[in-house]
Amino acid sequence: xxxxxxxxxxxxxxxxxxxxxxxxxxxxxxxxxxxxxxxxxxxxxxxxxxxxxxxxxxxxxxxxxxxxxxxxxxxxxxxxxxxxxxxxxxxxxxxxxxxxxxxxxxxxxxxxxxxxxxxxxxxxxxxxxxxxxxxxxxxxxxxxxxxxxxxxxxxxxxxxxxxxxxxxxxx
Length: 171
Description:
Layout: E1 2-4, E2 13-14, E3 26-28, E4 35-36, E5 49-51, E6 58-59, E7 81-82, E8 95-97, E9 104-105, E10 118-120, E11 127-128, E12 141-143, E13 150-151, E14 164-166
Parallel strand pairs: 1-3, 2-4, 3-5, 4-6, 6-7, 7-9, 8-10, 10-12, 11-13, 12-14
């Protein structure tokens, strides 16, 4: 099932559990959308493609949890907040680039993303939250924000494949 909103859509938010455990395979969200609430796509195991447009500023907790077919995420530069566990268990996800405008990042956001190989953390993140990439066994390369000052507990726990971490020079 594909879901496409028209360009004229005025949808401002998608509420909790709206598409939870549905058969959705692809969705293109409108530019009017500001908020993806908690658990919106939780358990959508067939969801493979999500287009999030400029204008979206926040993604709620567990929003994409266990979307096991989701291979890639393109996050808009307008995004300022991703809540805890938002993408946990997305076992097909291969890479992620967090936008520079992102200033609020919850813990365990990519926990258990076992196929994740590469991650780039944007300029707005100064603290790497606890458990951020915990259990990401395939994670090989991480590029930290040059503004990183703190790496919290278990941020890279069980990332046994990691071979390259780009840290700011003062860490």
